[in-house]
């Protein structure tokens, strides 16, 4: 009869495993933060373009009494 014996980690092995696991988690989180930052940058650019477009349209169609309202989205 053969019994399955779980491997018991030594303190050093456990420490190495934890360090490896934390490094992998840190790498993944760093990647996610970078991707989210890039997405925020992209959305900010799109927002700026839309605001610029809005003001251009307003400038073409605005009446003199509307000119005080041109800072609404700044």
Note down, in words, how this protein is organized.
69% of the residues lie in helices and 0% in strands. With 74 residues, it is mainly α. It has a domain at 22-59. The chain is rod-shaped, with a radius of gyration of 28 Å. The chain starts with 10 loop residues before the first helix and ends in a 13-residue tail after the last helix. 0% of the residues are buried. The mean pLDDT is 87. Residues 19-60 form a coiled coil.
Which tags fit this structure?
mainly alpha; 74 residues; single chain; 0% strand
Secondary structure elements and their pairing?
Elements (H helix, E strand, L loop, with lengths): L10 H51 L13
In a few lines, what is going on in this structure?
This protein is mainly alpha-helical. The chain has one helix spanning 11-61. The chain contains one helix and no strands.
Give the fraction of residues assigned to helices.
Answer: 55-70%
Shape: rod-shaped
Radius of gyration: 28 Å
Oligomeric status: single chain
N-to-C SSE series?
H
Helix-strand makeup class: mainly alpha
User: Residue-averaged pLDDT, rounded?
Assistant: 87
Low-confidence stretches: none
The proportion of residues in beta strands is: under 5%
| Total helical segments | 1
Number of strands: 0
Distance between the termini: 77 Å
């Amino acid at each position: 009869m053969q019994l399955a014996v779980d491997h018991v980690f030594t303190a050093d092995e456990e420490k190495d495993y934890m360090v490896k696991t934390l490094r992998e988690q840190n790498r993944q989180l760093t990647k996610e933060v970078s991707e989210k930052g890039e997405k925020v940058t992209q959305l900010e650019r799109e927002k700026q373009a839309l605001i610029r477009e809005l003001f251009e349209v307003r400038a073409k169609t605005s009446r003199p009494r509307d000119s005080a309202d041109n800072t609404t989205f700044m």
